[in-house]
Amino acid sequence: MMIKEKMLIDGNWVDAKNGDVLNVINPATEEIFATVPKANESDIEWAIQAADKAFRTWSCLSVFERGKFLRKASDLVYHNARDIARLMTQEQGKPVKEALGEVNKGAEILRYYAEEGERIYGRIIANAEDHTESRVIYQPVGVAAAISPWNYPVELLAWKIGGALASGCTIVAKVPSETPLAPVAFVRCLVEAGVPSGVINIITGSGSTVGPVLMRSPVIKKIAFTGSTETGKEVLRGCVDTLKKVSLELGGSLPMIVCRDCNLEAAIKGAVRRSFRNMGQICIAINRIYVDKEIYETFLDGFIAATKRLTIGNGLLNDCDLGPVTTSAVVEKTKSHIQDAREKGAKIVCGGKKPEGKEFEKGYYFEPTILSDVDHDMLVMKEETFGPLVGVMPFGDLDEAVTLANDSCYGLAAIVFTESLSTANRLSLDLNAGNIAVNNVDAGVINAPYGGWKDSGFGHEHGPEGLHEYLNIKHVRMRYL
Ligand code: NAD
């Protein structure tokens, strides 16, 4: 049965005023199984006005009151996690256990921000004059807008809703066109938790229609954008006239450095997980692996063998490691990066094609692919593939490893495997990225700041820094007469 989902505006579940819809495709079968409204300008304006109206009351509630709503919503997300996860698998492709992990993370994020909101502390600063002091206080910026992509459709929205609502902002969120259903189901939990009308408004529709309306609106005071670097730059340009606060979590080209003194088993396990989890459709997926030449062959053999053990399938029906990629465009981009590398001399040492078998005839399936004999003239080592592809090359010494790793316009994250404390420290300092993972591959945790350098953007999500993106600073100078 076809699912017909709606948008949330001012507490109402609605269609687009002109009745337009967008189709949602199951990447495992290539079938259209749902539609969502395709918002037009007047729908978006309604959502902005609703958020503006709701701001006055929401921002006046105490952080403890706001936290109660977030905690209740978090419980409801846990309660409904399995159903939300199945929707996500249908529209995004990741296996249900992965989707479930993501939805539970969404619940955890709401709870975290309920608590972090209680820790918005000000400061009192001594003044030179008698009986005078400076107070620094934080106040919500106003109406926030969120734009997020399809790779982690619930988690990336939860980062923004959690930060905005805890800080006292109301929000208009544009959910990804490819994967709108799980985010809308997640937001239903916030509505069920009693979050007042207008505090959260969810718009479905095309980014190129919704984005500009949000950017030029004088009512919206902050845009939290996660997506590609190209679109992020467009968003920044679009916010110039209204001078909004902007945070940009953009693309990456993540280097992993494998040193000769590392725990090789852990490095291989980490490389497999972080190169191919979610079919490489992660901003912090490993794109480039640099291995000390002394252990290069051993690492590569182990990496290939472990990658070949990954199972692929329709994640709704099978208990597999990987599903299809989300769109046919991802397959095409992955193929084009492979072809470019092959023309320049790279070798495919694992994968490189659609898996064989009747069950893969339909669906955006592709084998996890490893390239050797790569160099920095190849797209795989320069551009973000955002698909199941990684290049591996040897390095001679640490200076060379650092130079190669930093040879990128991106700076989101980097991974290092070494048993040496001084090498770990040196690489942590020398790598130009906002997040460094040493002897692990999970560079982001909810209570520490997460953000990129260079073309990977600016601003933060997670941690108190993520909350402060939604707050204005006010200095109050008091004289006690
Ligand atoms: P995208 O830039 O095409 O789209 C992101 C969002 O922007 C979508 O909701 C889309 O509808 C919307 N959009 C499209 N055109 C727009 C416009 N003109 N104005 C405003 N919004 C517009 O990115 P994508 O392909 O959906 O996602 C993949 C990208 O996201 C990758 O580059 C990935 O690295 C990045 N990403 C970054 C992070 C991070 O935390 N740094 C996390 C996840 C994904």
Question: What portion of residues is helical?
Answer: 25-40%
Whole-number count of domains: 2
The CATH class name of the largest domain reads: Alpha Beta
> Cα-atom Rg, whole angstroms?
23 Å
How are strands sequenced across the largest beta sheet?
Answer: 15-16-17-14-13-19-20
Largest sheet: 7 strands, mixed
Spans where pLDDT lies below 50 across 5 or more residues: none
What sort of overall outline do the alpha carbons produce when their principal axes are compared?
globular
* Distinct helical segment count: 14
Name the ligand types.
Answer: nicotinamide-adenine-dinucleotide
- Give the beta-strand count: 23
- Give the percentage of residues in beta strands: 15-25%
What is the CATH third-level topology name of the largest domain? Aldehyde Dehydrogenase, Chain A, domain 1
Q: In the CATH hierarchy, what is the architecture of the largest domain at level 2?
A: 3-Layer(aba) Sandwich
What is the topology?
Layout: E1 3-4, E2 7-9, E3 12-14, E4 21-26, E5 31-37, H1 41-60, H2 63-92, H3 96-117, E6 123-126, E7 132-140, E8 143-147, H4 155-167, E9 170-174, H5 181-192, E10 200-203, H6 207-216, E11 220-226, H7 229-238, E12 245-249, E13 254-258, H8 264-276, E14 286-292, H9 296-308, H10 328-343, E15 347-350, E16 369-372, H11 379-382, E17 389-395, H12 398-406, E18 410-411, E19 413-417, H13 421-430, E20 435-438, E21 453-454, E22 457-458, H14 463-468, E23 471-479
Parallel strand pairs: 1-5, 8-9, 8-11, 9-10, 11-12, 13-14, 13-19, 14-17, 16-17, 19-20
Antiparallel strand pairs: 2-3, 4-5, 6-7, 7-23, 12-22, 15-16, 18-21
Helix pairs in contact: 1-6, 2-3, 2-4, 2-5, 3-4, 8-9
The structure holds nicotinamide-adenine-dinucleotide.
Nicotinamide-adenine-dinucleotide binds at residues 147-151, 156, 174, 176-177, 207-208, 211, 226-228, 231, 234-235, 249-252, 283, 384, 386, 412, 452.
